Amino acid sequence: MQIYFYLFGAITLAGAVQGFLAGSKASLIAGGVLAALVLVGSYLSATQPVLGNVLVLLGSLGVAGKFVPAFFKKGYAVWPAGTLGLLGVVALVLAVLGLVRK
């Protein structure tokens, strides 16, 4: 799970930078905060699994909450809405499973 969380955080950060380069400071701020939650959570999940999974849960909830509805509203766009929405839902499920198992 930890590797998936790291990859998800990096892809989220890449999307934030892409949004910024397209002219959106809000994308950089929101995406950067959510990516930081996921990345710090994945780092902490090895030593403090509850805290780490809660941080990943919060970050992935924010990403999925933004991009899953956007995927259906904006004509099923693969990037960023489809990709980040799907990755966010998977991370959300994995974080919940990590909390339930501890």
Q: Beta-sheet strand percentage?
A: under 5%
Name the structural class: mainly alpha
Q: How many structural domains in the coordinates?
A: 1
User: Could you name the ranges where pLDDT drops below 50 across 5 or more consecutive residues?
Assistant: none
Average pLDDT, rounded to a whole number, is 96
How many β strands by DSSP?
A: 0
- What form results from the Cα inertia axes? globular
- H/E element sequence: HHHH
Main sheet, how many strands, which sense, barrel? none
Number of helices: 4
Helix share bin:
over 70%
How large, in whole angstroms, is the Cα Rg?
13 Å
Molecular structure report:
The chain has one domain (2-101). It has helices at residues 2-21, 25-44, 49-73, 78-101. The protein has 102 residues and is an all-alpha fold.
Task: Summarize the SSE layout with pairings.
Blueprint lengths: L1 H20 L3 H20 L4 H25 L4 H24 L1
Q: What would you say about this model in short?
A:
By secondary structure, the protein is mainly alpha-helical. The chain has helices spanning 2-21, 25-44, 49-73, 78-101. The chain is built from four helices and no strands.
